[in-house]
Amino acid sequence: MTSTIEPQGAATATPRGTLRRPADLARNIDVSGLVDTEGGLLDRVVFTDQELYRQELRRVYAPSWLFLAHTDQFHKPGDFFTTYMGEDPVIVTLDRDRRIRAYLNSCRHRGARVCRADSGTTRNFTCTYHGWSYNLDGSVASVPNKDGYPESFESGQWGLVEVPHVESYRGLIFGTWNPEPIPLRESLGDMAWYMDAMLDHDDQGTVVVGGVHKWVLEGNWKLAAEQFATDWYHVNMSHASALMILSPAGKKPKDEVVHRTGRQYSDAHGNGAGFPVHPKNRFDAQTVHAWMDYDALRERLGDARVEGPLTNGHATVFPNFSYLPVNGSIRVWHPKGPDRMEVWAWTLVDKSMPEEVREAQRLYNLRTFGPSGVFEQDDGENWSEAQSPSHGFITNGVALNYQMGLGTEREDGRHPGRTSELYSDAAGRAFYGRWRELMNTPAWHEENHS
């Protein structure tokens, strides 16, 4: 048996000639015994095995909706931003019809990237290797020495491979290689209610300030994604020094800050969000807090969101997009092998914010969850420390415990979907349950051919 991968929705027709890749090159491992969501156990080989990682790229990343960019990064035709879907480099751009599109950032001739800038504006994308050039709609613009090709060569068959589905939700742009996906909004389900607490403060929406920060961490991408989905538990221990710094001089953090109560949302799609619940929840940056009209937010979003996920909290949209409402931080955990990830982070603010309020939020984000932020450094150290011992033979065989809050998930009548206590592993169990499901499900590209 052999298999092929034919990206759908591309700007190209299938060229003449056929390649058939042996199916043995994509052996799939049954991961049923590696994740026990009912018992709350996880085999740590999911963080270290290279074959499992390659299978993730095929079965978790290729069919999923993946975060690409924010609509505020595109204002005129030719604006572009380069990013990744899994380890596949892609270009996101606004075409001449003002439609946001995404293409595989790889020349159809020898495979080099056709765009090596992080962002900017262009009329076309040109490979610096042999000069093949592509229009904003992905079609071939020019081929040097075209007369040297046979008569059967048709440039219309060799355009950039297009991401077949690109959709946005409240300014966040997602794409998927799946030719027949569940629509983005349906995929988000109840998670959209929690996202709106950050993204829907008024009719003007959100904008990006301060560009994109990027840094590399030693650790598996799932460690970061799961923490943002499920883990308030680490805050008091891991961030004790940061909490002291942010407290008034000479004082310990208030007891109600240390011992928070709240809820944690999880769903079958692997999405998760945790948040303290308190009538006086507020934004941390004083300038932002003073500017916010909490009464208007209550009118628009309701008491439950204002007292919960509007401010302090954490969330992950499966598989690798996360955000922190209190400082406007959104980020994507790009996988770079089983032992490394690249973090890309943006600061979002309400478009209606005056300049001085935007700047206050940007600076607060940098000080807390920027690359050198007092909280961010703690998290990166934890993920690296959790990863490094896992390569030991005995260590790798010792199960990890995800049992906190086991059996407490319920419909609480105030927050959509199933929620658990704030201190819980419920969203972590759901995250790995979704990972297990996708890892054991043939994806769109795995049709067999005789």
From TrEMBL:
Entry keyword set: 2Fe-2S, Aromatic hydrocarbons catabolism, Dioxygenase, Iron, Iron-sulfur, Metal-binding, NAD, Oxidoreductase
Source organism: Streptomyces jumonjinensis
Domain of life according to the entry: Bacteria
GO MF annotation: an example: monooxygenase activity
UniProt key word Ribosomal protein: no
Boundaries of every Rieske domain copy: 65-163
Keyword Repressor carried by entry: no
Family: Belongs to the bacterial ring-hydroxylating dioxygenase alpha subunit family.
Record protein name field: Rieske 2Fe-2S domain-containing protein
